[in-house]
Design brief:
Blueprint: H1 3-12, E1 20-27, E2 37-45, E3 48-56, H2 59-64, H3 67-71, E4 75-78
Parallel strand pairs: 1-4
Antiparallel strand pairs: 1-2, 2-3
Length: about 80
């Protein structure tokens, strides 16, 4: 491909952006960590991307008390 073709291809790519806001709760499977797990809060919007991950003793309780969950904009996934 020459430069002109590459430029045409670059500008023909779709520019639509999707918004994704999720909270993922994953319970630990290890014997010594029953009841514990990790929470990952991810936001991918046209204004930017952010991600936060933490390990908690009671992950579902923690996730349900976050301001992101209470806003109603985030989807909750349990794994």
């Amino acid at each position: 491909m020459n430069r002109q073709e590459l430029k045409a291809l670059w500008f023909s790519l779709p520019t639509s952006t999707t918004t994704s806001k999720t909270i993922k709760v994953e319970m630990d499977q290890y014997k010594g960590r029953k009841g514990q797990g990790t929470i990952e809060i991810t936001s991918d919007t046209p204004s930017g991307y952010s991600s936060f991950k933490t390990h908690q003793m009671h992950p579902l309780k923690y996730a349900l008390n976050t301001k992101q969950y209470k806003s109603g904009e985030y989807q909750l996934f349990l794994q």
